[in-house]
Each structure stands twice: as C-alpha cells, then as structure tokens.
Amino acid sequence: MIDKKNYCVIMSGGVGSRFWPVSRTKKPKQFLDFFGYGKTLLQSTFDRFSSFIDPDNILVVTNQAYAEETLRQLPLLKEENLLLEPVRRNTAPCIAYASYKIGRRCPDASIFVTPSDHVILDEKRFTEIAQRALSFVQHNDYLITLGILATRPETGYGYIQWSDETIDGFHKVKVFTEKPSQELAELFVKSGDFLWNSGMFVWNVPTISYALQTHQPELYELLKPASSLYDTEDEKAFIEKIFPTCPSISIDYGVMEKATNVLVLPSDFGWADLGTWSSVYDYAPKDKEGGNVSTQSACFFHESKGNIVTISDPDKVAVVQGVDDCIIADCDNVLLICKKDQESRIKSFMTEVELKHGKEYI
Q1: Are residues 163 and 91 both part of a single domain?
Q2: Which of 23, 202, 257, 357 could be a cystine partner for 133, CB 3.0 to 4.6 Å?
Q3: Domain coverage including residue 120
C-alpha cells in the first residue's frame, strides 16, 4: 500500500556538460536514452519512484528551458509538480523550494530527494532500501543519505566515512569528503569504512526546514516565509523574482557537512552516477572481442578495444579500426574523439569551441 505522506523530489536541471557533445544545453543527458532501452534517464527515475510513491507526490525541479521537454517525457507528472528554476543555483535552493512547497501540502511529509541521472540495476533492492529510509524518517528527526559500498577507487565520486555507531541500522557519519585524488581513493576503499556519496537524501519536512534555518539562514529567509504563495497563482512570479538572489550552494556543503543529525545507510543495489563517459562505459554492454561499447548506433570494431562509440544519427554506421580506449561521439554538428583517460578535459574543449564558433555547438 502506498503511503500518501511519502514524496519524491527529482532534481533534473543540470546540463551534463561532461557528456558533451551528446548532452547539450538544449537537451541535457537526463532527457536522453543512453543505452537504447526505450526510456530516458529522467523517465527511468520517475518510473522507479512511481512504483512505491504516488505519482501525484512526485515533484521534478528543472530549469525553465526544459519545462516543455519534461512534461512531454513525463505524461503522469502534474504540471503543478513541475518546479521551474529561472537560473541554476546548485542543489540547496532547489531542495529548499521543493521541501517548503511539499510542507504546505503535507507538513509532516517524508521526502526522498534524488538526481535524475542515476542507474539502478537492482530495482527491487533499491525499493526496499528507499522504503526503509522513508519509514525511518517518519518517526525520527534525522537527515539520511544513502551511501554506496565502494568497490573501486573512483575519483569522480564524493565519499562518506561511516561510524560503527548505529541507530536502527543507520550509521552515524564521521566525515564527508569531496572527490579525492587517486591515492586517497585507494586508501578509502582499502580502509573499508568509506562509502560513495550517492547524492540521494531522505528526511521529513520539519527536519530539513530546521536544518536549512540553522545552517542556511539566508536561504531559509528567502524561501520559507513565502510558503503561503506556493501552489497559488503568485508562486511563479515570486520564484522568478527571488530565486536568482538565492546563494548558489550544494546541499552537501550547505547542510549535510554542517549538521550533527546526519545518518548514512550503507546500500548496495547496483548504482552508478552517470557523471562521466567512463561511467557509461562501465555499465553498458560490451562486445566480447575487445570490450567495446556502442550506444545508439551500429558499429563494427576491428583490432580495437576499450572504446565507447555513440552516434546520434540512426542511419549512420561506424567502422572503427586500430583504435583503443577512446570516446568517439558524433552528435549533430560536433564530432569528439578523445582518449578515455583525458575526458576530464572535455569541459575545456567545450569552452574552446564556444569561444571560436559560438553557443550552437554547446
């Protein structure tokens, strides 16, 4: 039975610049079907949560530019549940906005906050863990984050050091660590007491409201007193005026790293944050001969290994010979060929192209 006091907030306003040129400003990665499964990342996320949360209780926060595409992809999303940011201000302001809006509807609601671009391989296990966390915060005033059991020294993720001290199986947090060096990541994994920071959070309305008031008073004062405007005809004008004045800060840095009532739930449900081309390579099916990945395209590989190839034109065929460990992405007016171990330079490539040729290539 679905609990009507459970809500979900899907954050879907990012640009996904590390996936350029496939992820573009006009249509970022969350609106794409990376693996040819017939669903975009956003659709997969919405469907995942609608299996145990009433679709009427699922809110999506995104940029104004993506309103039409979001509603097109999510026919079950109520228009009043589409929260539009006039500008990007990182995760704390959008979470605060959504939480106060939910609080107006249900003052003691439990909220699950999630990015829109995660891969979950074990949906059943994920549902069990999510429901456990939602049930816990109904009666406990803690800020919960889901920590993923670290299986390799990944430098693209943040880490959480967990304590042996537990409350109903939820562990107290020693420290949050931003994306580490390779050496530090190896030490974290070897120690066994560090988890990947999934960016998924669970709490109840009073707890997150108090945390924002305590640790982000400026943000609280900007958005909370106007809660009476949410779900009225005045909401849109208020957000367009006030939201650009909100501090640009992440919920991790702004709240989670400062609060003392934070718990982490170690989780293992086949998780990946599709934040890099390498993460797509890790989770996509590979050919048996060379461990190559081809998404959205027909591709023939000869004497090549470890590549990831994506071509947006369904009528185009690729033939790759004598190439190893490369990203090959052909999308509209941009072709990118880049070594996988150099993908951290993609943002600088974007900047170079934009400066010389304009925004239509970004």
Answers
A1: yes
A2: 202
A3: 6-273
Q: From the first residue on, what is the mean pLDDT of each consecutive set of 10 residues in the chain (362 residues)?
A: 95 91 93 88 98 98 98 98 97 98 98 96 97 98 95 87 95 92 91 94 98 98 94 97 97 96 95 84 89 86 97 92 97 96 92 96 94
- Type of residue at 272: A
Q: Which of 273, 296, 317 is the last residue of a domain?
A: 273
Residue 353 is assigned to a structural domain of this protein: yes
Nearest to 311, CA basis, from 331, 325, 327: 331
